[in-house]
Amino acid sequence: MSFVQVIEFDTQREEDVQRLMDEWRETTAGESTATHTTLTREHGRPGHYVTIVQFPSYEEAMRNSRLPETDEMSRRMQELCDGPPRFLDLDVIRDEDL
Asked: Which residues lie in Basic and acidic residues bias regions (predicted)?
């Protein structure tokens, strides 16, 4: 069963967040267990973002979370946010192409 982590946050520093995401992707190449990520910005709420990260399983997501680079990214991400991010850990129970 695949797994999705949703991270919801507010920031006025979108470009810095994007650079941090790029840096994390480069430093974890070959180690990260994430299979896909999507960064979204809420249309009617400037400064509000949601990141969706997909993993093969909960266990792989937890392995990814234990990477030192992920820990460092999380610390730096919190510095860029206007408050604490909100995390949702979701088991995918249905996934269809429409």
From this structure: 61-79
DSSP three-state, residue 44: coil
- Global confidence as pTM: 0.88
Q: Which residue has the tokens 């840096």?
A: 23
Question: How many Å apart are CA 39 and CA 19, to the nearest integer?
Answer: 12
Amino acid letter, residue 61: A
At CA 52, angle to CA 72 and CA 59, rounded to 5?
70
Architecture of domain 3-91: 2-Layer Sandwich (3.30)
pLDDT tens per residue, range 13-30: 999 999 999 999 999 999
Distance, CA of 69 to CA of 72 (rounded, Å): 5
Tokens 């249309």 sit at which residue?
Answer: 43
